[in-house]
């Protein structure tokens, strides 16, 4: 593998560090509703950001194409994990049904990974993939095939469902939890905006995927929600199960 200097390497590594930190914090609180999907979601984001940093640093087509495909080890799991997080966080997924749902949600990512890593044989994901010099730096470019767009639509369907669940919870829950949910929603929208701009060629920075940079803002929102508003410490589900079912006054405490 050959390497080149890119000014985006350090920002992406910092973004990788933020996502990793959120994933570690969420895993430490894995007994809370939604904590495990959130931790795995941030691991997937970290894989994407690290692979993208290495892709941009590659100085030959072979190196860049390897890391482009490696990125999808994180990308394909983002939308299923976001949906799982939303289902658990809002109390809409019973543990008895989770295993069956996990199997169904894992099918599409596995198929996409196989097609991405075998793209050279069929071209269904990227019909054309090349590398050329742009402003003195080697950049990877491609065209999108039918499988890419099917994956795009499927992923956004899951993401949309997860965001709708969080929005409904935002309006339904009491004011004390709205900062948690507001930051979650804001953090979810940033990478979506970056991905839409990049996917439809509206990007003011040609050949640069803005999605991983959007996840930097997403990770910061998650950190703010974790430390500033007790995300995963006391979730709206606890309030719904206890407060709404009682007519007496109560005090709800966490482990601290």
Structural commentary:
The protein is mainly alpha-helical. It is 68% helix and 5% strand. The protein has a two-stranded antiparallel ribbon. Helix 1 runs antiparallel to helix 2 and helix 2 packs antiparallel against helix 3. The radius of gyration is 20 Å and the shape is elongated.
Task: Give descriptors for this structure.
256 residues, mainly alpha, 9 helices, elongated
Main beta sheet = 2 strands, antiparallel
The helix/strand order is HHHHHEEHHHH
Structural class: mainly alpha
Can you tell me the residue ranges where pLDDT is under 50 for at least 5 consecutive residues? Answer: none
- Taken from the alpha-carbon principal axes, the silhouette is elongated
Number of strands: 2
Distance between the termini: 50 Å
Strand line-up across the major sheet: 1-2
Strand percentage: under 5%
Helical content (DSSP H or I, runs of 4+): 55-70%
What's the rounded overall pLDDT mean?
A: 82
């Amino acid at each position: 593998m050959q390497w080149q200097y890119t000014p985006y390497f350090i920002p992406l590594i910092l973004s990788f560090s933020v996502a990793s930190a959120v994933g570690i914090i969420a895993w430490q609180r894995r007994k809370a509703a939604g904590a495990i999907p959130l931790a795995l979601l941030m691991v997937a984001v970290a894989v994407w950001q690290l692979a993208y940093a290495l892709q941009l640093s590659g100085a030959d087509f072979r190196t860049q194409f390897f890391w482009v495909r490696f990125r999808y080890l994180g990308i394909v799991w983002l939308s299923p994990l976001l949906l799982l997080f939303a289902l658990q966080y809002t109390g809409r997924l019973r543990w008895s049904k989770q295993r069956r749902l996990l199997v169904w949600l894992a099918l599409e990512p596995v198929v996409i990974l196989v097609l991405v890593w075998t793209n050279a044989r069929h071209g269904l994901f990227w019909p054309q993939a090349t590398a050329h010099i742009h402003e003195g730096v080697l950049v990877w470019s491609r065209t999108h095939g039918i499988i890419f767009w099917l994956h795009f639509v499927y992923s956004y369907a899951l993401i949309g469902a997860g965001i709708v669940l969080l929005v409904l919870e935002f309006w339904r829950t009491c004011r004390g939890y709205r900062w948690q949910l507001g930051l979650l929603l804001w953090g979810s929208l940033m990478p979506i905006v970056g991905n839409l701009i990049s996917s439809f060629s509206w990007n003011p920075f040609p050949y640069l995927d803005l999605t991983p940079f959007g996840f930097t803002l997403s990770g910061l929102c998650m950190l703010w929600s974790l430390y500033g508003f007790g995300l995963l410490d006391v979730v709206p589900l606890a309030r719904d199960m206890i407060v709404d079912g009682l007519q007496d006054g109560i005090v709800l405490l966490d482990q601290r």
